[in-house]
Design goal:
about 45% helix; about 110 residues; mainly alpha
């Protein structure tokens, strides 16, 4: 499978929710739901763990993706991901990087290779 990088820089194909969905693995969905419920201090059910990636090709998304400002902006601007945006790195993105520095590293690597 080709590497899929979300608008924000998260590598979808390395995400445990994406992997559980692609393998249709209910045990993995349960593990992800339990871990994320603790990590994000909110109730996440195993049936909520269905994701094909947040890019336009993805059909199923984790609930947050439907309200994510970064995703909405990337879709509106029709960029592959934020590394290709003329406004990189905007305020929305820098706020996200504070909790996901690995996403910033991913986008920086893409920007350097373009």
């Amino acid at each position: 499978m080709d590497k899929i990088v979300a608008y924000c820089g998260i590598v979808c194909t390395e995400c445990p929710a994406f992997i559980a969905t692609q393998k249709n693995d209910d045990a993995a969905r349960k593990q992800v739901a339990e871990a994320w419920s603790k990590q994000y201090k909110m109730a996440i059910k195993p049936e909520d763990i269905n994701c094909d990636g947040c890019t336009p090709e993805g059909k199923r998304h984790i609930g947050y993706c439907n309200i994510c400002e970064v995703r909405k902006c990337g879709r509106d601007k029709a960029v592959v991901n934020c590394a290709y945006c003329d406004d990189y790195a905007c305020t929305k993105l820098t706020k996200f990087f504070a909790m996901a520095p690995h996403a910033k590293a991913s986008l920086e690597k893409i920007r350097k290779s373009r």
